[in-house]
Design a protein that fits this description.
The longest helix is centred in the first third of the chain and has 18 residues. Helix 6 links the parallel strand 1 and strand 2. Helices cover 38% and strands 21% of the residues. Helix 1 runs parallel beside helix 7. Strands 1, 2, 3, 4, 5, 6, 7 and 8 form an 8-stranded mixed beta sheet that branches. With 278 residues, the protein is an alpha/beta fold. The relative contact order is 0.15. It starts with a helix and ends in a 12-residue tail after the last strand. About 4% of the residues have low confidence.
Length: 278
């Protein structure tokens, strides 16, 4: 619960900063120039963001662009876990068109308020933002075609529950298509135990084989992890600075071990597992 409250507080502060004219970055760190640049920079091109409200773009805290990789189709229902300021929900709503729907789920009141304001400014009708936790999704079984998420699942202290809930709400044949931070190899204990680094999208990251195992345990198949950015020692120095750790000692140890990745999986079209069929 302590971790969850820290995450809620820091992301709430990020939403407030955006409303005051600042910007934000991965994990709601201070709004500084080039903040968390190795993780959050250059994720969306101008053709995607050009017609979105500026606040939706500034509040983006992600590590990837799941809407570009999820191959959304017209008429589908999409759920974004940890939707923040709403950028991926608004982009998804465009892709699924008026016959489809995009849900955004977030536990932070300030982010939900910002996202709803961004929806109004964007003039998008096929969107609904829900308050809730990704470990307890407030939607019925088998109600969603695609689940997306952008650097949020790594923040959860109960990732097995997140995977089970994602499996439950997906329709048979539904797709899990998320961007997240993933590790390869052993991560220093100082990074794993630092609470602020959890909020910064780093310390809570799963090893790639753990991610696959947890998805498989929940019932998914067709699991694939595609690296989109692998962070080097200089990137590590950037996102470790100011976090209460010995940067010079730790940065070389995490060189090449953290990456942003696109994780794909599918709920079987027919099965007998709990949550598989409504």
């Amino acid at each position: 619960m302590e971790l969850k409250e820290v995450v809620r507080e820091k992301y709430g502060e990020a939403a407030v900063r955006v409303r005051l004219g600042g910007s934000s970055c991965c994990g709601a760190a201070a709004a500084l120039e080039n903040c968390c640049d190795p993780i959050t920079s250059n994720l969306y091109d101008a053709t995607q963001t050009g017609s979105l409200p500026e606040d939706a773009v500034l509040a983006s805290l992600g590590c990837g662009n799941p809407t570009a990789l999820a191959e959304l189709k017209a008429g589908e229902t999409v759920l974004d876990l940890g939707s923040g300021g709403g950028i991926d929900v608004l982009l998804s709503a465009r892709r699924v068109g008026p016959a489809g729907k995009a849900y955004g789920l977030d536990m932070t009141d300030e982010m939900l308020s910002l996202a709803r304001d961004n929806q109004l400014r964007a003039g998008v009708d096929n969107v609904e933002f829900l308050k809730g936790e990704i470990e307890h999704i407030p939607l019925p079984d088998s109600s969603v075609d695609v689940i997306i998420s952008n650097c949020v699942i790594n923040l959860s202290g109960d990732k097995d529950r997140v995977m089970r809930e994602a499996f439950r709400v997906l329709k048979p044949g539904g797709r899990f298509a998320v961007s997240d931070v993933v590790t390869r190899g052993e991560v220093p204990a100082d990074v794993r135990k630092n609470m602020l680094l959890w909020v910064g999208c780093i310390a809570g990251a799963l090893d790639d084989y753990q991610y696959v195992a947890k998805l498989a345990k929940a019932g998914f198949d067709g699991i694939d992890i595609e690296p989109t950015r692998v962070y080097n020692v200089e990137d590590a120095r950037t996102f470790l600075s100011g976090q209460g750790v010995d940067v010079d000692a730790i940065a070389p140890q995490v060189d090449g071990k953290f990456m942003s990745a696109f994780i794909r999986a599918t709920k079987p079209a027919s099965c007998c597992a709990p949550g598989c069929c409504s």
